[in-house]
Task: structure prediction
Amino acid sequence: MAVDILECHLVTCQKSGTCREKIGGGTVCVCPPRIAGDHCEEEIDECQSSPCVRGGVCVDKINGFECECPHAQWVGQTCGNREYVGAGFFLNCGKIMFCAVKMCP
Ligand SMILES: [Ca+2]
Result:
């Protein structure tokens, strides 16, 4: 008769990963989304795809990224939105052409 040896108490899965016992022995860490590695130790670098535009500097975060936009008029997650501040109202115009032609005075 096979003895089921519980091994997960010996394994530490990082970054909120969950240890599961494999049938037949051994363990596996089940990692949260965008986490990889045998023990969930690898965090995916979302900045690898260079998501920031307009000179934004990408800062890798857990499960995401932030762009530090160097120019105040460019905002949004990728610095691709133009912020328009007009008389008494505030409008996030999206793409600059749309802003210039359609919406903003
Ligand atoms: Ca990341």
About this structure: The domain at 8-43 is CATH 2.10.25.10 (Laminin).
